[in-house]
Design goal:
The protein has one domain. It is about 80% helix and about 0% strand. The protein contains eight helices and no strands. Helix 1 packs across helix 2, helix 2 packs across helix 5 and helix 5 packs across helix 8. One of its GO terms (cellular component) is membrane.
Length: about 230
């Protein structure tokens, strides 16, 4: 099955590389937001069970504890919680739209890195050039990409300039710090090992967990704004 998918992807990519990347990004981003919404529902149900049974509250250090408890500190749970919200298809469409729109820019950026820092045919210096690609990617593209993400999502949700400014003030720097924890190592592997046609799909696949984190961060800020007096 994997071999068939790889052959299909290579065939589509050879004919229409940008469009193939756009569709791949959109599908993977949809999977990521679905994961994030599932985690949000799980988080709320866990909080409800903890409120109903105090003994469960002592065992909340599960495998989601680090990120979920950070969000809990940001948005304290009230004494009584509403039921988990229904699945938000519009939110998933927004995430898929952002990934679809950003794919051509990602495609050009990766092509630029590939051309600017080529790997020598002998293999000597390949690791050094891979590190240069990572440095350029993380110092230039990553901050701009996060800024574009939070701006796009806030505007798509109906927010104005003030909402965008608040989103940057509250969540941009923590998200950027998390980016520098996760992505440099991922991109070293990506640039050093993956063929160029698989680099963006590889990033998008690893990015399922990252986009889920961004989705949780973005929705957490929205809940904080919506719940504030």
């Amino acid at each position: 099955m994997v071999s068939i998918l790889v052959r299909k992807f290579n065939a589509y990519y050879a004919n229409r590389p940008v469009f193939t990347t756009m569709v791949t990004n959109a599908v993977l981003s949809g999977i990521a937001d679905t994961t994030a919404q599932t985690l949000t529902a799980f988080r709320r149900r866990s909080a409800q069970r903890s409120l109903a049974d105090p003994e469960l509250a002592a065992h909340r250090d599960d495998f989601f504890s680090i990120e979920i408890q950070d969000l809990d500190k940001k948005i304290p749970w009230p004494d009584r919680l509403p039921p988990p919200p229904p699945f938000d298809f519009e939110r998933t469409v927004r995430f898929m739209s952002y990934a679809f729109i950003m794919a051509p820019l990602q495609h050009r950026w990766f092509a630029f890195l590939h051309k600017t820092f080529p790997f020598p045919a002998t293999g000597h210096g390949a690791t050094a050039n891979a590190l240069k690609r990572v440095a350029f990617d993380q110092l230039l593209f990553a901050p701009c990409g996060l800024a574009a993400f939070f701006t796009f999502m806030t505007v798509a949700e109906g927010g104005g300039r003030r909402a965008v400014a608040r989103k940057f003030q509250d969540v941009y720097i923590p998200a950027l710090k998390a980016n520098y924890v996760v992505w440099p190592a991922v991109q070293i592997l990506n640039f050093r090992v993956m063929p160029i046609q698989f680099q963006i799909p590889f990033v998008s696949t690893i990015g399922i967990a990252w986009t889920a984190y961004l989705s949780l961060t973005n929705s957490a800020e929205d809940e904080a704004i919506g719940g504030s007096p």
